[in-house]
Amino acid sequence: MPDPSQGTPKGPEPQLSIPKDVTDTPSTSSTAFEPVDPKTWPLYRKYLNLFLVSFMSLMGYFSSAVYMPATTEIREYFNTSITVVNTTIAFFVLLLGISPLFFAPLSEQIGRRWIYVGGIFLFTVFTILCGISTNLGAFIFFRLCQGIFASIGQGLGGGSIADMFEGRQRSRAVSFYMFGTIFGPAIAPTVGGFITRYLGFRWLFYIKAIIGGLLTLASFFFLDETLHQPHTKTPFLQRLKSVRVNPISTFGLLLKPPIGLVCLAVSTAFGWFYLMVTNLPLTFSDRYGFSVDKIGLLYLPGGIGNCSGAIVAGLIAHRCYLWLTRRNLGKPLAEFYLAPIVIALPLLLAGLLIYGWAIDYQANLFVALLGYLFFTHATMLSITLSNTYLVEAYLERSASVVSVNNCLRNIFATVFSVLAAIVRNGLGDGWTYTTAAITVFVFYLPLLLVWFYGPAWRAKG
């Protein structure tokens, strides 16, 4: 196996023939347009579909984060504890991760369009029911059902990208998709804080229901089927009868070393991110005396960090891939997409340490927010690169591998958000985030094994 770090021999650089899938040339330039093959569609049609899918993905994490600033109001209305309210957030995030283990393999058998349309419709229905609930039990039940169908965009998005895009287009599409995914939680707490203060927490659900209804209509009329099966003539209903979905098998993809190690690394960072944002309202109200609407504004640096991380990943991932391919004598390896993580790791560690100790010593607010910005930027840079790598390395099962990555991240997010208050009360802010930095470093180191041995592992199946 060629060493991914191998350099070009001295002397004149040989003329290399770079494979088609690593060039900057769009696939449509060399392939005749074929209506049933999404890879030959014009770019505007691809990006219309990608926009709708990304918007659905946005609604998932937006729905989980938008009522974080409203936890106190929801607790008071239902006369319950803050632990119960935080648990509804945690289990919502858990269902965001688990549900795609069913939806992704299903979409690889019967197609993606109707799963998208049906999923966003049911998301809208359960969002309305959350908004009108007056009973705590009913509210929790409808909230969990909302979480199941909020996962549609995240569960199927990687598959749709693999269906439509090739080469450089694909890495940019993943970045665009991840930007949509994280733009939701980036703006959700700020939006949620103002809506809760001026309209009441129920309008969090009414506004989401309006957006969901519009998205349902847009998907019904404009979203295309992207799963191209040229040798399959079986009618849809017959395919539906023969469906076999095994979520345990899908989750078992984590046993493949390249998938498991990559997912474990980014899930660790994502878990600490959820602990950070779950504790954020109490942290800044205790330490700095902020009100609910102002606390919502404090999430903005994290949103900027998340968005910039996805954008930077889109700008540099394919360039690094092409450069390393040339240095590897023209042989492309999917592992080259992981190279920019060497930038992410120092930022992850610095961000955690700056944030934790700035709060612990009640330093200037902007110092803590700078650490928050660094950490979120590096977290989203890592997640975007990991999804790009998984799509490229496992094209045939792209929806499933991206779903299992989402699943493990959300499991970590669930556990860390449930334990957020306990960990902070036990360790204090400084040592909480020092512990976070140590664990992130430990779980990112095995990515070196993926870098050197990933191609051989994948060759073994």
UniProtKB/TrEMBL annotation:
Keywords: Membrane, Transmembrane, Transmembrane helix, Transport. The chain crosses the membrane at residues 47-70, 82-103, 115-134, 174-195, 201-223, 259-277, 297-324, 336-359, 365-386, 407-427, 433-454. It is found in: Membrane. This is MFS general substrate transporter. It is a multi-pass membrane protein. GO terms for molecular function: transmembrane transporter activity. The lineage of its organism: Eukaryota, Fungi, Fungi incertae sedis, Mucoromycota, Mucoromycotina. Residues 49-458 form the Major facilitator superfamily (MFS) profile domain.
